[in-house]
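Pilot study result, target chain (153 residues):
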Amino acid sequence: MTVATTITIHALGMEHRARLMQLARDVSFAEGVRIFEEGQHADRFWVVRTGTVSLDIPVPGRRSAVVETIGHNELIGWSWLFEPFLWQLGAEAMSPVRAHEFDAAAVRDLCRSDPALDAAVSHWVGRVLAHRLQAARNRLLDLYAPYGSGTWA
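Predicted structure:
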């Protein structure tokens, strides 16, 4: 089963994207760098400029399962928006990555001061979250479901 098209930062309107980008800081990650681990404090997030990042989930007794690959203009991380602000997945640079980094507290403060921006960012991140959950579900079914067991409701 194919997951719907990814949700990029362009899902935000130009005005909201411009406001958000005022808080961006350029960063880079070398290939193989762990960007974050599941359970760590989620105090920032990134939008990929170049390169690719894998999102993974620990599987007891096995290697972590890669559930999605993130690329150009895509959001790395959604856990920064929802308490308790802990990463729900892990992330690793699969190639050299350049990204825009955002301080989560500063973005949440900006959103609190602008209800329209808050709604736009919440909607964008919510769409990304829904997409990531579907991708994780599909990947885990591919890896671990008994053959012919059908799909989950």
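One observation from the pilot: The longest helix spans residues 115-144. A full batch analysis is planned for the follow-on phase.
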